[in-house]
Fold this protein.
Amino acid sequence: MGENNKVNESLLKDDLYQAVNGEWLKTAVIPADRPTAGGFSELDLNIEKTLMHDLGEMLEGKNVPDDNHLKEFLKYYKLASDFETRNAKGFEPAKKYLDAVLAIKDLQDWQDKWLDFALIDAANPFSFLKDCFRVLDWRRGIFRGRRKAGYALHCIHKRRKPLPAAGARSNNRHV
């Protein structure tokens, strides 16, 4: 804790938050581009400053490690950091890809064009749906489990004990 760790004991019963944090709040500054302030935020800021400094030196050709992956990253970083060129070109370089996605009429059309997207390393322009499909797979598993109820009825009919439901505890080791 820093020098502003004084607790205002007169506020303890009425406003614990102000009693504990009041002095700190008077001097604390939360950076405009950050949601919080504190030790971890300062650590994050210091790491970011160090990273930006190191990348700047590497772009100037200083202290560049002999690593092909890092060299390729530096090329990409330099390209992405060229805001003058990016602003001058605007959205035009990406427009052809957006137009291709917007031209998809239905699922069959997407399946037909899938290879074209794969060749530009954008095989699934709908990847934001992947979590939806995971949920659907999970639900399908539940429905598959319900289909096993038919098997349980078959077991009862044959005078055998059914398998316990998935996740259910059973002391019966005979199946």
Helices lie at 16-27, 39-59, 68-81, 83-89, 92-102, 107-119, 130-157.
